[in-house]
Amino acid sequence: MCLPMLSISRYILYLFIIVNFGYSLGTQFLSVPSSAIELAFGPSPLFGSLTVNNPALLRSPTQGVAMNVSYGSWLNNISNSSFSLSSKLGRGNIGFNMRHMGVSDLELRSNRPTDDPLATFSSSSFAAATSYSQTYGAITVGATIRYILIQLYTENVSGMTFDGGITRAFGKNIDLGFSILNTGFINNTDSYNPTLPLRFLSALSYQLPRSKWGHKICLSAEQSSLVDGIIIRAASETKFEKFDLRFGTQTSKEVTVVSGGFGIQLGLLNFHYGIQIGSQHLGLPQMLDISIKLP
Questions:
Q1: Any idea which architecture 2-103+119-294 has in CATH?
Q2: Which residue has better confidence, 71 or 107?
Q3: What pTM does this model have?
């Protein structure tokens, strides 16, 4: 009697470990870069034209619609993709964003070694968001509301998050930005009780006096409920005609990351590439963006 009960207990424990590992994708995807530009710089409330790290950064063309498509991989070969649209609405900008992260071929195994798993399954996270930003003199404010859905095996959880942000320009060369991300709620199940990764970001940037080369540097800090201590980041962007070169670095109590990338404009199309190298040695995240202005 003891042996079967012990075997069942081990099986349940092993199943619990596998499920929790699969859920490591979970709500953490809200903190993962969703574009090549963000991956190259690192999360910042002052860099980029999308709204993932600061809804006040949302920009749109004076006429028509801007579309951006991003695709790449995150740590452990997790697929990472997003799709964004933005346009003018009244005196401000409105944007729509969808993103998806997923990993497949996860294996469910018992404590007994076998050639074949008991089952294979996938884990995915999906978000759909709408954002609005508007400028008042030297101040730009923005807000985002987001629906999230996380799926694993037979479990589903969903919720809503809210972001807010602000940027302030001081003259032509200095900008200050703040954002609060992922406030809101998410439901749970009997076996999974997720929490949202609440994040506070701040940054200060300086644009070097104009010359043939445009160069901007940025120093930022982040406090996240997922990380012990403060994350410090530094980033730079150099522009020359239709070519952009980007670098970034970040350090926290446990991880150091170096990143970089570039962008190039070819007619109506803009291509951006980003790559990240981290001390955790769990893979080489890379992303490619394609942006175009639609009539």
A1: Beta Barrel (2.40)
A2: 71
A3: 0.83
